[in-house]
Design the sequence.
C-alpha cells in the first residue's frame, strides 16, 4: 500500500480530517477532534499508528510481523502498522475502520448519532 492509497482509506472515514500538529513528518487524522490515525515514516518505511482493542492489538502483533506496539503512543491501545510490506490491504482497511470506530465509541452520544447518519450517507460511496 502506498501513501496515496493509505490517505484515501483514512479520508473516507466519516468526518475524518487531517493536519500536521507535530510537524511535516507526522500526518494526524482525527474525527471530531480525537485522533484515530497517524501516518509517519520510520527507518524508510511507511507506517500508520492505529488505535486498537488491547487484546486484539496483541493478537495482531503475534500474527503479523509488520504490526508492532505503537511508536510514541500508549503501546497497550495503539499499534504501528507498516503498510509497505506483506500485510494484506484488506487487513489494513479493517484496522483503520476499527480505529475510527473505537474513537467514535468514546464520543458524546449526540456526536455518535450525527456520525451514524453521515456514515449511512457515505456507505454506498466508500471505497479505498
Sequence:
Amino acid at each position: 500500500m502506498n501513501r496515496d492509497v493509505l490517505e484515501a482509506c483514512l479520508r473516507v472515514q466519516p468526518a475524518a480530517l487531517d493536519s500536521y500538529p507535530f510537524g511535516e513528518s507526522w500526518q494526524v487524522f482525527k474525527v471530531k477532534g480525537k485522533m484515530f490515525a497517524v501516518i509517519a515514516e520510520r527507518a524508510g518505511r511507511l507506517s500508520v499508528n492505529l488505535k486498537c482493542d488491547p487484546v486484539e492489538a496483541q493478537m495482531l502483533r503475534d500474527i503479523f510481523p509488520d504490526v508492532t506496539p505503537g511508536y510514541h503512543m500508549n503501546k497497550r491501545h495503539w499499534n504501528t502498522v507498516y503498510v509497505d510490506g506483506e500485510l494484506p490491504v484488506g487487513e489494513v482497511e479493517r484496522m483503520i475502520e476499527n480505529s475510527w470506530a473505537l474513537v467514535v465509541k468514546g464520543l458524546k452520544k449526540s456526536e455518535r448519532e450525527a456520525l451514524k447518519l453521515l456514515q449511512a450517507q457515505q456507505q454506498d460511496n466508500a471505497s479505498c
In short: The domain at 3-125 is CATH 3.90.1150.30 (Aspartate Aminotransferase, domain 1). The longest helix spans residues 89-105.
